[in-house]
Amino acid sequence: MSELLLTENRDGVLVITFNRPDKKNAVNTQMWIALREAFCAAAQDNDVVCALLCGAGDNFCSGVDLASFGDVGEGEEHPFESAARAVVEFDKPLVAAAQGAAVGGGATVLFHADIVYVGTTLRLRLPFASLGLAPEWGSSYMLQANIGAQRAAELFYTAEWVDADKALHLGIAADVLPDADLFDHALAKANEIAQWPVNALREIKRTLRQHHLPAIDAAINAEQAAMVRQAGSPENIEAITAFMEKRKPNFRGLS
User: Fold this and answer.
1) Distance CA 64, CA 31 (A)
2) Which of 15, 75, 194, 206 minimizes the number of CB atoms within 10 Å of its CB?
């Protein structure tokens, strides 16, 4: 397992930690591979009853490290996609503890956690419109399923920042804790879950998720097709250029 993604079994709770705090836990190709392997292994390991996903330092995850996103050969499935599917298919309870930045993939992964606790410093954003891109990780379905179509549309279309209180109000988070208490609270809840028989928990999760899975799969396929159309588009190029030049992008007149 990569040192950039730490795993530790704490009495049946597998703690999975994004460990790149100097980059706000931006996920590079190596980390996507490690994340996929961690969730696939945890699904098969009966010593793992529940998983807890968190981020080292002051942030949960600032999403994809764009500097490494092109490290895969043309025509190959990007590890981001296989990591997403490993999380979607994980058949045991998944708890998440998020503080600070939760952006892009660092936000959409939270929609697949069964329970999300956030710190008071949370700043969550779905930046896809501002980047000239499309959603990912099945988020175009999961966010609607979690908070309703209108509220999900507002967050996608505006690319606005969501703080901890709004995340709680919308139903993205189950509770808000001071950052200093966040991990301990999430771990205590994960341990509370892990006292029960793993196969019973699997069956409960299956009943909760089974009717969502076909829609999630359809959403992922649609998102991947949309991303192919938008990546490298004039809007996407303008967004990246404006970011590099530290200016506001101008999308008018682009097609």
Assistant:
1) 10
2) 75
Both tokens of 5, joined, read: 């993604």
Mean pLDDT of each 10-residue bin along the chain, 255 residues long: 91 98 96 96 97 98 79 65 94 98 97 98 97 94 97 98 98 98 98 97 96 95 94 91 90 80
**Domain extents in the chain:** 1-178+205-255
pTM of the model: 0.93
Instruction: Please tell us whether the domain made up of 1-178+205-255 is placed in CATH 3.90.226.10.
Output: yes
Q: What is the pLDDT of residue 94?
A: 98
Query: 5 and 53 in contact (C-beta within 8 Å)?
Result: no
Alpha helices in the chain (DSSP H): 29-44, 79-89, 105-108, 139-147, 149-158, 164-170, 179-194, 198-209, 213-230, 234-244
CA distances from 179 to 59, 99, 118, 143, 175 (A): 10, 7, 8, 24, 12
The first and second tokens of residue 235, run together, are 């809007």
* SS (HEC) of 52-89: EEEECCCCCECCECHHHCCCCCCCCCCHHHHHHHHHHH
55 bridge partner residues = 18
* Cα four-point dihedral sign 239, 128, 117, 162: positive
Q: What is the pLDDT of residues 182-238, one digit of tens each?
A: 999 999 999 999 999 999 999 999 999 999 999 999 999 999 999 999 999 999 999
* 123-125 vs 175-177, strand pairing mode: unpaired
Q: Which residue, 232, 213, 226, 228, is CA-closest to 77?
A: 228
